[in-house]
Amino acid sequence: MASRRELLKTLSMLPLAGGLLGSEWLHGQPINKVLLEPATRNFFKELGLRTFINAAGTYTSMTGSLMSKEVTSAISYGATEYVNLDELQDKVGERIAELLECEYATVSSGAFGAMTIGLAGVISGMDEKKVAQLPDTTGLKNEVILQESHNIVYTHALTNVGVKIITVKTAKELEKAINKNTAMLWFLNANTDEGEIKQEAFVKLGKKHGIPTFIDCAADVPPVENLYKFTKMGFDLVAFSGGKGLRGPQSAGLLLGNKNLIKAARLHTPPRGHTIARGMKVNKEEVLGMLVALELYLQKDHIKEWKMWESQIKLISDSVLSVKGVETEIHIPKYANHVPSLKVRWDQDIVKMTPNDVRSELKNGHPSIETVGNDKEIGITTWMMEPGQERLVAQRLREVLSNI
Ligand SMILES: *Cc1c(COP(=O)(O)O)cnc(C)c1O
């Protein structure tokens, strides 16, 4: 058995060991001070984790986006008082609907959660028995139609509800696929160009057949106009991620649109427990954080921000172009992650490294920098960086490519 002395030694190597032992000191500071002032603790370092400059974009694996002080103080505020969860969601939903000039809204657990509860509400309506029945769709509408090119991983948010996905290629095929079991038509904005049916035509088909339409716009701010565009166009339900361009909590999202459908969607959410979405909880902190993030986003000078991103991308591009054999391409994705972006490629006979080598050198260097891309190029965006970090990225990328 370990002696008390050895045990103390081991425990003192663990974070909070002082607390476990009732000691008054931790990391050279009185423990009550440490606990009262979390900002003085470097949690990620304590846990042995490296933080990094995010030159990649909004990726769940990289924890999405950073929240502003206004958002985190709304979250801290939320943690200090009790409030009725449904009443809070009602009020915040009304406020968001007012801000976004749509009929109704709710804060969801991400865009994925918005898809699940949105579809569940379409199927159940306000019928509590049907709410409790899902994901068993026996006797209920159980088919969702979408274009084949829109069938990406996230449609699992729909199959979670207990439905079958029916894929089609053309408007004609879509109309043929509609039957008495069709619950909803679903559109993926990010893949607009890959599908034959575009948004307006899609909405028209839904209206013609009296079937609700849903559009996934998870990564579609900017532009800010998208927050209004699709509800006004006539989509019954519209989903956005809270923790991408909106820079709210990564675990939150927005479901906008038809009031009756969103009320029905809410029946599937906590505090109610006989539901498929009990695990998709958003508590008051995230609800407030999401609201404040949205308010801030709407107040933002979007033109100024865009110009900043453009000049940051140009700075990085100019910097790496000074390396022999390197070429760059500045591009803006038309749908989803619609921000100035950079591709960096090089002649591998001159710069003798693969893009994977460069990505891991950037990641493992100081500071650590995360980028994306494939085996042909490095992909960079600056919109998820803190201003000023573009200089470090420009310098490091040039160093790595010139093999300094
Ligand atoms: C990110 C994303 C989602 C998931 O959004 P969360 O907010 O993380 O739940 C769904 N659809 C698309 C197209 C996305 O890009």
TrEMBL record:
Gene3D superfamilies: Type I PLP-dependent aspartate aminotransferase-like (Major domain) (3.40.640.10). InterPro entries: PyrdxlP-dep_Trfase, PyrdxlP-dep_Trfase_major, SelA-like. It comes from the Bacteria. Its cofactor is pyridoxal 5'-phosphate. Keywords: Pyridoxal phosphate. Belongs to the SelA family. The keyword Cell inner membrane does not apply. This is Selenocysteine synthase. The keyword Signal does not apply.
